[in-house]
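## retry 2 of 3
previous attempt timed out at serialization; input unchanged, resubmitting
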Amino acid sequence: MILNKKLRILLYGANIWYFGEGMFGPLFAIFAERVGGDILDVSWAWAIYLIFAGILYLVFGRISDKYDVKEKLMIAGYALNAIFTFAYLFVSTPTHLFIVQAGLGLAVAMATPAWFALYSDYENRKHSGFQWGLSEGGAKIITGIAIVIGGYIVSYTSFKTLFIIMGIIQVIATIIQAQILRYKHF
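## retry succeeded, writing output
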């Protein structure tokens, strides 16, 4: 067996999350413009996300190792990500967008280092190249498909509908990832 139960949970949950997150993709700039943002606001919003995430990756990566709370941090990050995705529904100014982006940076910093550490812990070393290929390749494929679907959703409905669908998908991803708690000590 190339994928054990824990790896399958991590992959399924992550790919569902990538699908939900990926639906927004390049539509972010259009949304930012609709809430009164210009090119600099889009730049600042994206920079805030990346800087918050980057700094907090270091913090939460250390916390996950020191206190052995990888599973809990990952699940909390996924849940927080879903909450901040729903928060897009309330964004009406660039400042609101900056706050949501900072929250998403916090969420991804909680979840991602812990996810990678768990994936590394659970991988079958004999098939690690393939398993990491599944992780990264699957994320790219799913995100690519999601971008197109997100474009259709916004074209035929609205950003509000998109954010609701994204949030629901991310809640589902959180529930799937939470199953890892059953297997923590196995």
